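TOPIC: backbone geometry
CONTENTS: sequence, structure tokens:
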Amino acid sequence: MTDYIQQYKQYHEDLRKYPGNNLEPQLPHILQLIQETHSSTLLDYGCGKGYQYMNGRLPYGFEPALYDPAVPEHDTYPKGTFHGVISTDVMEHIPEDQIPHVFKQISQFATRFVFLAIAPDLAIAKLPNGENAHCTIKPLDWWVDIWKQVSSNKDLIVHIKTYGQYEGYANFIEG
């Protein structure tokens, strides 16, 4: 996929496109991680337009930082670190060769935990160039192996959830 971020910028220009609704089903896992790690800062990596946080829907008791390189309102690269980093329905949109780089970034932002929810099935959505919006379709073990290869963040709690054809859940502490 050539310049996938540019494809998503074009995709997001149409406000009627997918608003991002996969946060809510993941909240039980995320809230548990926040409570267990006594976290008070959070980054939503790949937040899309951030609609999931509008109308007072901040289930954490604090407002997470939002980052999405394809959405102008949220494309400023985050500074510093956060207790937790979450990413729901994002990784499968990133080309396979870019996953190690993205995982490394995420691990450097997180100081206590990471939660990734990944949909390893083809999407209904197509990008402006006609390609399927989900370009990295891999089973849970592949995602876990890549994470462990690139992250060097000691004592970080990592939860990776896949759903769809490769449904699974892995959690581990790096170190």
About this structure: The first strand starts at residue 42 and ends at 45. Residues 38 and 141 are 28 Å apart (CA to CA). The chain has a mean pLDDT of 89. Helices lie at 4-13, 27-37, 99-109, 140-150.
